[in-house]
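Field reference: sequence -> structure
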Amino acid sequence: MSKRPEDIQHEQRIVWTEDIDAFDYVRESLTTEAGTRARPVPWHGAGRRVGYSTLKRDAPSNDSPGRFTRRIFWVKEHDRSEHPSGVYKTGTPSEGIDPRTVAPGVWGELTERAWGSPLPSAAARAGRFHQGRLSDGRPQALDTWRVTTDDAHVAARVADLLGGRTQPNEGGGSLAHEVLTTRESVRVLMDGPDAVAAHMRRWDSSGVAHECDGSEFLSPEGKKGQPCGCPPLLEDRKLAAREGHGPTPSTDLAFRIAAAPVLGEFHFTTGSWQLAAQLSDLMDALERIGGPAVCDLTMELVVFTTKTGMDVGYRQPVVTVLGSPDTVPPEPLSTPAPAPSDASSFFPKPKQAPEPTTLPVADATCSVSVDTTLLSPAAQVLGTNNHQETVIAALSEAVAGQQQAADLTQLREHVERIATIARQALQGGDSSST
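Structure field:
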Protein backbone atom coordinates (compact mmCIF):
# COMPACT_ATOMS: atom_id res chain seq x y z
CA MET A 1 0.00 0.00 0.00
CA SER A 2 1.35 3.40 -0.99
CA LYS A 3 1.38 5.78 1.99
CA ARG A 4 0.60 9.19 0.55
CA PRO A 5 0.12 12.16 2.92
CA GLU A 6 -2.79 13.47 0.86
CA ASP A 7 -4.82 10.30 1.49
CA ILE A 8 -5.08 11.03 5.23
CA GLN A 9 -4.75 14.83 5.36
CA HIS A 10 -8.43 15.35 6.28
CA GLU A 11 -8.42 13.08 9.35
CA GLN A 12 -9.77 14.48 12.61
CA ARG A 13 -9.09 11.70 15.11
CA ILE A 14 -8.21 8.02 15.54
CA VAL A 15 -10.78 5.84 17.29
CA TRP A 16 -9.49 2.66 18.93
CA THR A 17 -12.20 0.11 19.68
CA GLU A 18 -9.79 -2.01 21.74
CA ASP A 19 -6.94 -1.18 24.11
CA ILE A 20 -3.87 -0.65 21.92
CA ASP A 21 -1.58 -1.67 24.80
CA ALA A 22 -2.62 -5.23 23.99
CA PHE A 23 -1.06 -4.98 20.54
CA ASP A 24 2.62 -4.86 19.61
CA TYR A 25 1.43 -4.17 16.07
CA VAL A 26 -1.79 -3.81 14.11
CA ARG A 27 -2.47 -3.84 10.39
CA GLU A 28 -3.12 -0.50 8.70
CA SER A 29 -5.24 -0.26 5.54
CA LEU A 30 -7.18 2.32 3.53
CA THR A 31 -10.75 2.04 2.35
CA THR A 32 -12.15 4.31 -0.34
CA GLU A 33 -15.71 3.08 0.19
CA ALA A 34 -16.59 4.56 3.59
CA GLY A 35 -20.14 5.94 3.44
CA THR A 36 -19.67 8.56 6.18
CA ARG A 37 -16.96 10.81 7.58
CA ALA A 38 -17.29 9.83 11.24
CA ARG A 39 -19.37 6.71 11.86
CA PRO A 40 -17.60 3.39 12.49
CA VAL A 41 -16.15 1.90 9.33
CA PRO A 42 -17.62 -1.57 8.65
CA TRP A 43 -15.08 -4.37 8.35
CA HIS A 44 -15.86 -7.33 6.10
CA GLY A 45 -12.40 -8.81 5.70
CA ALA A 46 -10.56 -11.54 7.59
CA GLY A 47 -9.88 -10.99 11.30
CA ARG A 48 -11.41 -8.06 13.15
CA ARG A 49 -11.27 -4.28 13.20
CA VAL A 50 -9.61 -2.66 16.23
CA GLY A 51 -9.68 1.00 15.14
CA TYR A 52 -10.52 3.51 12.45
CA SER A 53 -10.07 7.16 11.54
CA THR A 54 -12.71 9.86 11.40
CA LEU A 55 -12.66 12.85 9.06
CA LYS A 56 -13.23 16.56 9.48
CA ARG A 57 -16.74 17.82 8.73
CA ASP A 58 -15.59 19.53 5.53
CA ALA A 59 -13.53 16.57 4.25
CA PRO A 60 -14.27 16.07 0.54
CA SER A 61 -15.49 12.80 -0.87
CA ASN A 62 -13.25 10.89 -3.20
CA ASP A 63 -13.90 10.30 -6.90
CA SER A 64 -17.16 8.51 -6.06
CA PRO A 65 -19.71 10.98 -4.62
CA GLY A 66 -20.68 10.14 -1.05
CA ARG A 67 -17.67 7.86 -0.58
CA PHE A 68 -14.75 8.79 1.64
CA THR A 69 -11.17 7.56 2.08
CA ARG A 70 -10.51 6.44 5.65
CA ARG A 71 -8.05 4.26 7.53
CA ILE A 72 -8.90 0.97 9.20
CA PHE A 73 -6.75 -0.84 11.77
CA TRP A 74 -7.24 -4.57 12.14
CA VAL A 75 -5.70 -7.90 13.15
CA LYS A 76 -5.93 -11.48 11.91
CA GLU A 77 -6.30 -14.57 14.04
CA HIS A 78 -2.66 -15.58 13.50
CA ASP A 79 -1.19 -12.18 14.48
CA ARG A 80 1.01 -11.95 17.55
CA SER A 81 -1.73 -10.47 19.75
CA GLU A 82 -3.87 -13.56 19.08
CA HIS A 83 -1.14 -16.18 18.77
CA PRO A 84 2.05 -15.02 20.59
CA SER A 85 4.13 -18.07 19.65
CA GLY A 86 2.90 -18.27 16.07
CA VAL A 87 4.39 -17.31 12.74
CA TYR A 88 4.66 -13.64 13.81
CA LYS A 89 6.45 -14.30 17.08
CA THR A 90 8.94 -11.95 15.49
CA GLY A 91 8.38 -9.88 12.38
CA THR A 92 5.18 -8.35 11.08
CA PRO A 93 2.99 -8.65 8.01
CA SER A 94 3.67 -6.11 5.28
CA GLU A 95 0.94 -3.74 6.56
CA GLY A 96 1.99 -4.08 10.21
CA ILE A 97 2.69 -0.88 12.20
CA ASP A 98 3.03 0.14 15.85
CA PRO A 99 -0.34 1.65 16.87
CA ARG A 100 1.43 3.99 19.27
CA THR A 101 2.95 5.84 16.30
CA VAL A 102 -0.44 6.62 14.73
CA ALA A 103 -2.02 10.08 14.86
CA PRO A 104 -4.56 11.96 12.72
CA GLY A 105 -2.83 12.67 9.42
CA VAL A 106 0.22 10.60 10.43
CA TRP A 107 0.91 7.17 8.99
CA GLY A 108 1.90 4.39 11.40
CA GLU A 109 5.51 3.26 11.55
CA LEU A 110 7.35 0.03 12.22
CA THR A 111 9.19 -0.09 15.56
CA GLU A 112 11.24 -2.66 17.45
CA ARG A 113 8.24 -3.35 19.67
CA ALA A 114 6.12 -4.03 16.59
CA TRP A 115 8.84 -6.20 15.01
CA GLY A 116 9.39 -8.18 18.22
CA SER A 117 13.18 -7.83 18.04
CA PRO A 118 15.76 -5.33 16.79
CA LEU A 119 14.66 -4.08 13.40
CA PRO A 120 16.53 -5.47 10.41
CA SER A 121 17.87 -2.83 8.09
CA ALA A 122 15.55 -1.40 5.49
CA ALA A 123 17.68 -3.08 2.85
CA ALA A 124 17.19 -6.47 4.50
CA ARG A 125 13.44 -6.00 4.35
CA ALA A 126 13.83 -5.01 0.70
CA GLY A 127 15.96 -7.98 -0.34
CA ARG A 128 15.11 -9.23 -3.81
CA PHE A 129 15.01 -12.52 -5.70
CA HIS A 130 16.02 -12.58 -9.37
CA GLN A 131 15.97 -14.97 -12.30
CA GLY A 132 18.82 -13.19 -14.08
CA ARG A 133 21.84 -10.94 -13.80
CA LEU A 134 24.29 -9.04 -15.98
CA SER A 135 27.43 -10.80 -17.16
CA ASP A 136 29.94 -8.63 -19.03
CA GLY A 137 27.14 -6.19 -19.75
CA ARG A 138 24.84 -8.82 -21.22
CA PRO A 139 21.60 -10.17 -19.68
CA GLN A 140 22.01 -13.71 -18.44
CA ALA A 141 19.18 -16.06 -17.49
CA LEU A 142 19.96 -18.21 -14.45
CA ASP A 143 18.97 -21.76 -13.56
CA THR A 144 18.88 -21.05 -9.81
CA TRP A 145 17.68 -18.12 -7.74
CA ARG A 146 19.83 -15.05 -7.26
CA VAL A 147 19.26 -12.96 -4.12
CA THR A 148 20.44 -9.39 -3.55
CA THR A 149 20.46 -7.36 -0.33
CA ASP A 150 22.30 -4.49 1.32
CA ASP A 151 22.69 -6.42 4.60
CA ALA A 152 25.80 -8.61 4.80
CA HIS A 153 24.27 -10.69 7.62
CA VAL A 154 21.18 -11.42 5.54
CA ALA A 155 23.33 -12.38 2.55
CA ALA A 156 25.37 -14.79 4.67
CA ARG A 157 22.24 -16.35 6.14
CA VAL A 158 20.68 -16.76 2.68
CA ALA A 159 23.84 -18.53 1.52
CA ASP A 160 23.64 -20.87 4.52
CA LEU A 161 20.00 -21.69 3.81
CA LEU A 162 19.96 -21.81 0.02
CA GLY A 163 23.54 -22.65 -0.91
CA GLY A 164 26.01 -20.55 -2.84
CA ARG A 165 28.23 -17.87 -1.39
CA THR A 166 28.04 -14.15 -0.78
CA GLN A 167 29.86 -11.79 -3.11
CA PRO A 168 29.75 -8.12 -4.10
CA ASN A 169 26.82 -7.45 -6.37
CA GLU A 170 28.21 -7.00 -9.85
CA GLY A 171 25.17 -8.43 -11.58
CA GLY A 172 23.11 -5.25 -11.70
CA GLY A 173 20.87 -3.36 -9.30
CA SER A 174 21.63 -1.07 -6.39
CA LEU A 175 21.90 -3.57 -3.50
CA ALA A 176 25.45 -4.26 -2.35
CA HIS A 177 25.53 -8.04 -1.90
CA GLU A 178 24.38 -10.96 -4.01
CA VAL A 179 24.09 -14.71 -3.53
CA LEU A 180 23.94 -17.03 -6.52
CA THR A 181 22.10 -19.82 -4.71
CA THR A 182 22.05 -23.49 -5.64
CA ARG A 183 18.27 -23.68 -5.38
CA GLU A 184 15.71 -23.53 -8.18
CA SER A 185 12.90 -23.87 -5.62
CA VAL A 186 12.59 -22.01 -2.32
CA ARG A 187 9.96 -22.54 0.35
CA VAL A 188 8.47 -19.20 1.37
CA LEU A 189 5.66 -17.67 3.44
CA MET A 190 3.15 -15.43 1.67
CA ASP A 191 0.64 -13.55 3.79
CA GLY A 192 -2.60 -13.67 1.85
CA PRO A 193 -3.62 -11.96 -1.40
CA ASP A 194 -2.03 -8.70 -0.22
CA ALA A 195 1.34 -10.36 -0.86
CA VAL A 196 0.63 -10.13 -4.60
CA ALA A 197 0.69 -6.80 -6.47
CA ALA A 198 -0.17 -6.95 -10.16
CA HIS A 199 0.27 -4.01 -12.54
CA MET A 200 0.38 -3.59 -16.30
CA ARG A 201 2.90 -1.01 -17.53
CA ARG A 202 4.07 0.48 -20.81
CA TRP A 203 7.12 2.73 -20.98
CA ASP A 204 7.98 5.52 -23.40
CA SER A 205 10.65 8.24 -23.53
CA SER A 206 9.03 10.15 -20.64
CA GLY A 207 8.78 7.15 -18.30
CA VAL A 208 5.67 5.12 -17.49
CA ALA A 209 3.14 6.00 -20.19
CA HIS A 210 0.46 3.53 -19.10
CA GLU A 211 -0.15 1.87 -15.72
CA CYS A 212 -3.28 -0.14 -14.99
CA ASP A 213 -4.60 -3.26 -13.33
CA GLY A 214 -5.99 -4.63 -16.58
CA SER A 215 -9.31 -2.83 -16.31
CA GLU A 216 -8.70 0.60 -14.70
CA PHE A 217 -5.87 3.12 -14.71
CA LEU A 218 -3.68 3.19 -11.59
CA SER A 219 -1.87 6.33 -12.69
CA PRO A 220 -1.58 9.20 -13.49
CA GLU A 221 -3.81 10.68 -10.80
CA GLY A 222 -6.05 12.37 -13.37
CA LYS A 223 -6.91 9.01 -14.97
CA LYS A 224 -6.93 6.85 -11.83
CA GLY A 225 -10.04 4.66 -11.71
CA GLN A 226 -11.01 5.30 -15.33
CA PRO A 227 -11.27 2.39 -17.82
CA CYS A 228 -7.83 1.69 -19.26
CA GLY A 229 -9.03 0.24 -22.57
CA CYS A 230 -6.95 -2.94 -22.37
CA PRO A 231 -8.45 -5.94 -24.19
CA PRO A 232 -10.24 -8.37 -21.87
CA LEU A 233 -8.50 -11.45 -23.30
CA LEU A 234 -4.92 -12.21 -22.32
CA GLU A 235 -3.90 -13.23 -25.83
CA ASP A 236 -5.11 -9.90 -27.19
CA ARG A 237 -3.12 -8.08 -24.49
CA LYS A 238 0.01 -10.02 -25.44
CA LEU A 239 -0.51 -9.11 -29.10
CA ALA A 240 -0.91 -5.41 -28.23
CA ALA A 241 2.27 -5.55 -26.15
CA ARG A 242 4.22 -7.23 -28.96
CA GLU A 243 3.06 -4.53 -31.36
CA GLY A 244 4.33 -1.85 -28.98
CA HIS A 245 1.06 -0.10 -28.03
CA GLY A 246 -0.02 -2.23 -25.07
CA PRO A 247 1.38 -2.68 -21.53
CA THR A 248 3.14 -5.77 -20.21
CA PRO A 249 2.70 -7.46 -16.82
CA SER A 250 4.65 -6.41 -13.75
CA THR A 251 3.82 -8.77 -10.91
CA ASP A 252 5.44 -8.33 -7.49
CA LEU A 253 5.43 -11.12 -4.90
CA ALA A 254 6.23 -10.33 -1.25
CA PHE A 255 7.31 -13.19 0.99
CA ARG A 256 9.62 -14.38 3.74
CA ILE A 257 11.92 -17.38 3.58
CA ALA A 258 10.06 -20.09 5.51
CA ALA A 259 13.20 -21.44 7.18
CA ALA A 260 14.16 -17.98 8.53
CA PRO A 261 11.19 -15.56 8.52
CA VAL A 262 12.98 -13.20 10.91
CA LEU A 263 15.27 -12.11 8.05
CA GLY A 264 12.41 -9.97 6.78
CA GLU A 265 10.43 -9.51 3.62
CA PHE A 266 11.85 -10.25 0.19
CA HIS A 267 10.34 -9.36 -3.17
CA PHE A 268 10.37 -10.94 -6.59
CA THR A 269 9.12 -8.94 -9.58
CA THR A 270 8.49 -10.57 -12.93
CA GLY A 271 7.04 -9.81 -16.33
CA SER A 272 5.87 -13.40 -16.86
CA TRP A 273 2.66 -13.66 -18.86
CA GLN A 274 2.16 -17.16 -17.48
CA LEU A 275 2.10 -15.85 -13.92
CA ALA A 276 -0.20 -12.99 -14.91
CA ALA A 277 -2.65 -15.48 -16.43
CA GLN A 278 -2.95 -17.41 -13.16
CA LEU A 279 -3.01 -14.60 -10.59
CA SER A 280 -6.72 -14.92 -9.86
CA ASP A 281 -6.35 -18.61 -8.94
CA LEU A 282 -3.24 -17.89 -6.88
CA MET A 283 -4.90 -15.10 -4.89
CA ASP A 284 -7.99 -17.23 -4.28
CA ALA A 285 -5.81 -20.02 -2.89
CA LEU A 286 -3.94 -17.59 -0.61
CA GLU A 287 -7.28 -16.24 0.61
CA ARG A 288 -8.51 -19.76 1.41
CA ILE A 289 -5.50 -20.39 3.66
CA GLY A 290 -6.68 -17.49 5.83
CA GLY A 291 -3.22 -16.56 7.07
CA PRO A 292 0.45 -17.08 6.19
CA ALA A 293 0.62 -19.63 3.39
CA VAL A 294 3.56 -21.97 2.87
CA CYS A 295 4.45 -21.87 -0.83
CA ASP A 296 7.17 -23.13 -3.11
CA LEU A 297 8.60 -20.45 -5.41
CA THR A 298 10.15 -22.33 -8.30
CA MET A 299 12.00 -21.54 -11.51
CA GLU A 300 10.39 -24.23 -13.66
CA LEU A 301 12.17 -25.33 -16.83
CA VAL A 302 10.04 -25.24 -19.98
CA VAL A 303 11.46 -27.17 -22.94
CA PHE A 304 10.04 -27.38 -26.46
CA THR A 305 11.09 -27.82 -30.08
CA THR A 306 10.60 -25.03 -32.62
CA LYS A 307 9.32 -25.54 -36.15
CA THR A 308 12.91 -25.46 -37.35
CA GLY A 309 13.77 -28.41 -35.10
CA MET A 310 15.75 -26.46 -32.51
CA ASP A 311 15.38 -27.45 -28.84
CA VAL A 312 14.69 -24.32 -26.81
CA GLY A 313 14.33 -23.87 -23.07
CA TYR A 314 13.50 -21.09 -20.66
CA ARG A 315 12.43 -20.86 -17.02
CA GLN A 316 9.12 -19.52 -15.80
CA PRO A 317 8.28 -18.62 -12.18
CA VAL A 318 5.79 -20.98 -10.55
CA VAL A 319 4.05 -20.46 -7.19
CA THR A 320 2.73 -23.63 -5.56
CA VAL A 321 0.54 -23.10 -2.48
CA LEU A 322 1.09 -25.98 -0.03
CA GLY A 323 -0.95 -25.02 3.03
CA SER A 324 -0.68 -23.29 6.39
CA PRO A 325 2.49 -23.47 8.53
CA ASP A 326 0.91 -25.93 10.98
CA THR A 327 0.01 -28.42 8.23
CA VAL A 328 3.17 -28.37 6.07
CA PRO A 329 6.29 -30.14 7.40
CA PRO A 330 9.59 -28.26 7.37
CA GLU A 331 11.51 -28.38 4.12
CA PRO A 332 14.80 -30.31 4.11
CA LEU A 333 17.45 -27.78 3.16
CA SER A 334 20.19 -30.09 1.94
CA THR A 335 18.57 -30.61 -1.46
CA PRO A 336 15.78 -28.83 -3.33
CA ALA A 337 12.44 -30.15 -2.10
CA PRO A 338 10.15 -31.55 -4.80
CA ALA A 339 6.62 -30.20 -4.87
CA PRO A 340 4.12 -32.64 -3.28
CA SER A 341 2.03 -34.51 -5.79
CA ASP A 342 -1.19 -33.17 -4.27
CA ALA A 343 -0.02 -29.57 -4.19
CA SER A 344 -2.13 -26.95 -5.93
CA SER A 345 0.13 -25.48 -8.62
CA PHE A 346 -1.26 -22.64 -10.65
CA PHE A 347 0.50 -23.24 -13.93
CA PRO A 348 -0.01 -25.90 -16.56
CA LYS A 349 2.83 -28.37 -16.71
CA PRO A 350 5.09 -27.54 -19.66
CA LYS A 351 5.16 -29.69 -22.75
CA GLN A 352 8.68 -31.04 -22.90
CA ALA A 353 10.70 -32.13 -25.87
CA PRO A 354 11.01 -35.91 -26.29
CA GLU A 355 14.69 -35.82 -25.33
CA PRO A 356 15.30 -32.74 -23.16
CA THR A 357 18.87 -33.83 -22.52
CA THR A 358 19.74 -32.46 -25.95
CA LEU A 359 18.86 -28.93 -24.83
CA PRO A 360 21.93 -26.67 -25.19
CA VAL A 361 21.90 -25.29 -21.63
CA ALA A 362 25.08 -24.50 -19.72
CA ASP A 363 25.80 -26.22 -16.38
CA ALA A 364 24.79 -23.28 -14.18
CA THR A 365 23.47 -20.55 -16.41
CA CYS A 366 22.00 -19.94 -19.83
CA SER A 367 23.21 -16.87 -21.70
CA VAL A 368 21.14 -15.12 -24.34
CA SER A 369 23.52 -14.26 -27.21
CA VAL A 370 22.37 -11.21 -29.15
CA ASP A 371 23.93 -8.07 -30.58
CA THR A 372 25.41 -6.19 -27.61
CA THR A 373 24.85 -2.85 -29.33
CA LEU A 374 21.13 -3.54 -28.99
CA LEU A 375 21.05 -4.87 -25.45
CA SER A 376 23.64 -2.63 -23.77
CA PRO A 377 21.21 0.30 -23.50
CA ALA A 378 18.58 -2.12 -22.17
CA ALA A 379 21.00 -3.41 -19.54
CA GLN A 380 21.83 0.10 -18.34
CA VAL A 381 18.25 1.16 -17.77
CA LEU A 382 16.70 -2.19 -16.86
CA GLY A 383 19.41 -3.55 -14.56
CA THR A 384 18.83 -7.06 -13.24
CA ASN A 385 15.68 -6.53 -11.25
CA ASN A 386 12.15 -6.43 -12.56
CA HIS A 387 12.77 -4.58 -15.84
CA GLN A 388 15.78 -6.64 -16.85
CA GLU A 389 13.83 -9.76 -16.03
CA THR A 390 11.07 -8.37 -18.22
CA VAL A 391 13.60 -8.37 -21.06
CA ILE A 392 14.33 -12.04 -20.37
CA ALA A 393 10.63 -12.81 -20.14
CA ALA A 394 9.99 -10.93 -23.37
CA LEU A 395 12.70 -12.89 -25.13
CA SER A 396 11.22 -16.09 -23.76
CA GLU A 397 7.82 -15.11 -25.08
CA ALA A 398 9.33 -14.41 -28.48
CA VAL A 399 10.95 -17.82 -28.52
CA ALA A 400 8.03 -19.68 -26.88
CA GLY A 401 5.46 -18.51 -29.38
CA GLN A 402 6.05 -20.74 -32.37
CA GLN A 403 4.73 -18.11 -34.75
CA GLN A 404 7.41 -15.73 -33.50
CA ALA A 405 10.19 -18.35 -33.49
CA ALA A 406 9.96 -19.42 -37.11
CA ASP A 407 13.44 -18.09 -37.75
CA LEU A 408 16.17 -15.98 -36.15
CA THR A 409 15.20 -12.91 -38.16
CA GLN A 410 11.92 -12.60 -36.30
CA LEU A 411 13.66 -13.10 -32.95
CA ARG A 412 16.09 -10.31 -33.81
CA GLU A 413 13.14 -8.02 -34.57
CA HIS A 414 11.77 -8.60 -31.08
CA VAL A 415 15.14 -7.84 -29.51
CA GLU A 416 15.41 -4.63 -31.51
CA ARG A 417 11.97 -3.54 -30.32
CA ILE A 418 12.96 -4.17 -26.69
CA ALA A 419 16.19 -2.23 -27.16
CA THR A 420 14.33 0.72 -28.70
CA ILE A 421 11.96 0.94 -25.73
CA ALA A 422 14.92 0.67 -23.36
CA ARG A 423 16.79 3.48 -25.14
CA GLN A 424 13.74 5.72 -24.80
CA ALA A 425 13.43 4.90 -21.11
CA LEU A 426 17.16 5.55 -20.62
CA GLN A 427 16.87 8.97 -22.23
CA GLY A 428 13.83 10.10 -20.28
CA GLY A 429 13.28 7.65 -17.38
CA ASP A 430 14.78 7.04 -13.94
CA SER A 431 16.58 3.72 -13.75
CA SER A 432 16.97 3.89 -9.95
CA SER A 433 13.91 1.74 -9.48
CA THR A 434 15.41 -1.29 -11.19
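Note: The first strand starts at residue 11 and ends at 16.
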